[in-house]
Specification:
By secondary structure, the protein is an alpha/beta fold. 30% of the residues lie in helices and 18% in strands. A 4-stranded parallel β-sheet has the order 1-2-3-4, with no helix packed on it. A 4-stranded mixed β-sheet has the order 5-6-7-8, with helices on both faces. Helix 3 links the parallel strand 3 and strand 4. The chain is globular and about 55 Å long.
């Protein structure tokens, strides 16, 4: 089974109420956040599963603390590196099956084999977007940049746009940041992400 998640920001105090809490995360401190993430992760993921981490696994803390924590998370971990990922320590690098800046894979959605484009940063024009590929990203958290990215996608999915590109498929891109309501601080399958994201944004009328 494949799972996806991004922007956990382990050891970053400012994503909790102990700091600035700029994500509005429901954690009083890092210990509470780390405990919740580890519990949700290991309850769901088995050592035979693969988790694609789309960047910003951690931001602060000593390398020893980070290595100790990540080593307890189950599954084969593949990092699509973000702007805060420091991978200079060889011991930390060895916790991942692969580390890259961009990745293309295949997964299943509603019984259909689909192409996925994985990157930490949102990209408005991604490979094979008009032929059904799905783009997963992070970086923008739940801030105004996410709103504008979604707004651009909606405009590109209008009838006027498709009149110029007859027969093309709707563009589909999903933010897998752990703080998004449909992610809820745990790795999610592609189907969970698609269903949860579309329900959330429809309810928010975004």
């Amino acid at each position: 089974m494949n799972y996806y998640i991004s922007d956990l920001h382990l050891f970053h105090k400012n994503v909790t109420r102990e700091g600035k809490d700029f994500d509005d995360r429901p954690f009083d401190n890092l210990d509470e956040m780390h405990s919740t993430i580890k519990e949700k992760w290991n309850k769901k993921v088995t050592n035979g599963d693969t988790v694609y981490i789309l960047g910003d696994m951690a931001m602060r803390g000593t390398q020893e603390d980070l290595i100790a924590f990540v080593s307890t998370l189950k599954g084969h971990k593949i990092m699509v590196r973000g702007n805060h990922d420091d991978i200079r320590d060889q011991r930390y690098k060895q916790l991942y099956d692969e580390i890259c800046d961009y990745k293309e894979i295949r997964d299943t959605l509603n019984g259909e084999n689909v192409k996925l484009i994985l990157c930490h940063y949102p990209i408005l024009m991604w490979k094979d977007q008009h032929y059904g590929s799905i783009f997963l990203y992070g970086h923008v958290h739940n801030c105004v940049e996410e709103y504008y990215f979604k707004k651009c996608l909606r405009e590109m999915n209008t009838e006027a746009f498709f009149d110029r590109r007859k027969g093309d498929k709707l563009l589909r891109a999903y933010n897998v940041g752990c703080m998004m309501p449909y992610m809820n601080y745990e790795p999610r399958t592609l189907e969970e992400i698609v269903i949860g994201s579309e329900r959330f944004f429809n309810e928010q009328k975004l």
